[in-house]
Amino acid sequence: MLKDIKDFTADEVGLWFTAQGLDSTTVISEGVDGDLLLSLTIDDLKSDLGLSSLHSKKVMKNIDWSKMLTQPGGEDISNFSSEEVAMWM
Q1: Which of 8, 42, 79, 84 is the most buried if burial means most Cβ atoms within 10 Å?
Q2: DSSP-derived secondary structure for the chain
Q3: Any idea which of 3-7, 44-48, 55-59, 67-71 has the lowest mean pLDDT?
Q4: At what angle do helices 53-69 and 10-19 cross, to 10 degrees?
């Protein structure tokens, strides 16, 4: 089972941002852990973390994807079509 995003440390959230091609400096310096990340809105991501609108939407989409993967059986994406998987990337 994958680690639930709400349990991420600030460093893990930073790595998660980096994996998406985003700068993790502010996330780490502000101490944004997984629980706090889940409470942020698109406006928070833009104003507090300095993300563009598109990057903010990407983060929100990937939060949903990460939540889905941490559900029981969620790590098995084999029953999703390639279109469904691409929608989340």
Answers
A1: 8
A2: -PPPGGG--HHHHHHHHHHTT---HHHHHTT--HHHHHH--HHHHHHTT---HHHHHHHHHHHHHHHHHTSTTTT--TTS-HHHHHHH-
A3: 67-71
A4: 110
Which class for 6: exposed (0-12), middle (13-18), buried (19 or more C-beta within 10 A)? Answer: middle
For the beta carbon of residue 21, count every other beta carbon within 10 angstroms: 8
- Sketch out the chain's domains with CATH numbers: 5-72 (1.10.150.50)
pLDDT in tens, 63-82: 998 888 777 665 555 555 55
pTM: 0.77
What angle is formed at CA 8 by the lines to CA 65 and CA 62, rounded to 5 degrees? Answer: 20
